[in-house]
Amino acid sequence: MNRLEILDLSYNLLYGEIPFSLPPRNIQTIDLSSNHFHGAIRSSFFEQAWNLTSFNVSNNTLSGYISSSTCLQSSPSIRVLDFSSNEFSGNISHGFGGCSKLHILRADHNNLSGSLLEDIYNATKLEELVLPLNSLNGAISERIANLTQLTILDLSFNHLSGVIPLNFGKLWKLKFMNFDFKSLEGNLPPSLMNCTNLIELHLRFNYLEGDLTTANFSKLNHLSKLDLLRNNFTSVFPRSLYSCRFLKAIRLSDNPYLKG
User: Fold this and answer.
1) Exposure letters 21-31 (e unless 16+ CB within 10 A, then b)
2) Could you tell me where the DSSP H helices lie in the chain?
3) I need a labelling partner for 95 at 20 to 30 A (CA). Which of 25, 74, 232, 240 fits?
4) In whole angstroms, what is the distance from residue 204 CA to residue 234 CA?
5) 153-162 mean pLDDT
6) Domain residue spans of the chain
7) CA pair distance 240, 217, nearest whole angstrom
8) pLDDT over 90 at 119, yes or no
9) DSSP per-residue letters across 2-61
10) How far apart are CA 62 and CA 107, in angstroms?
11) End-to-end alpha carbon distance in the chain
12) How many CB atoms are closer than 10 A to CB 44?
């Protein structure tokens, strides 16, 4: 046990709370996903996990707060955190910005609330930020442009509002973007067309507006899916979309001011 590096107990129908003790500090990967663990994760669980790089507790019924102490106090080498499909609630605590090596943060399908705290934009190695189906609110900060390594950004089905940041195009590595909110407004920022690696762009159920023909979609050479359902875009079908040779699905319905 002293040399144990990987602990994978996923899909074992395990019940109860996650025990307070943990295998020795050599542990690098813990996967407790798809069981029936409940209750809160005690900070003491991580006290010896100095070398932990991946922690997955998705698909359980865990509750309480998601604590950034996982990164800051115990596991400075953490790269993957997956809290998805549980019953975590409250704000995402301060401190994720100090996770200098964090590549993946997933916490979708929970009961998280409050705003996206500013220090999450300091986690500049993030490649995936996946937080849909929560109750997050407030605006998306211009500081999201700090996350230049992002390839997957999914903040859909929350209560976020405001506009898409003007400098969003700095996220040029993005491949998948889902902002299905019901509350975003304003125009598509011109810089969005600098995200030339986009494969899927989902912006349905918002209050977005403006002349779609001013957006140069021809720069999105890899675009496969574009969903702008139920917004307030105007003008006519943008001809620049004809240049997207990989485009397989377009949805522009329920834009009452958009002509065919």
Assistant:
1) ebbeebbbbbb
2) 69
3) 25
4) 15
5) 96
6) 6-259
7) 5
8) no
9) TT--EEE--SS--EEEPPS----TT--EEE--SSEEEE---GGGGTT-TT--EEE--SSE
10) 12
11) 66
12) 11
**What share of the chain has pLDDT > 70, as a percent?**
93
pLDDT one-digit tens code per residue, 72-109: 556 778 899 999 999 999 887 666 766 788 999 999 99
pLDDT at 130: 97
Which residue type occupies 217? F
* Distance in angstroms (rounded) separating the CA atoms of residues 202 and 178: 5
Supply 8's token pair: 């994978």
DSSP state of 234: E
Query: Beta strands 200-202 and 225-227: pairing type?
Result: parallel
Residue with tokens 């900060």: 141
Evaluate whether 228 touches 206 at the Cβ level (below 8 Å).
no
Query: Residue 94 is encoded by which pair of tokens?
Result: 């301060």
What confidence tens digit (pLDDT) does each residue in 37-57 have?
Answer: 999 988 777 777 788 899 999
CATH of domain 6-259: 3.80.10.10
The secondary structure of 83-98 as a DSSP string is --SSEEEEPPPTTGGG
What token pair was written down for 185? 């407004």
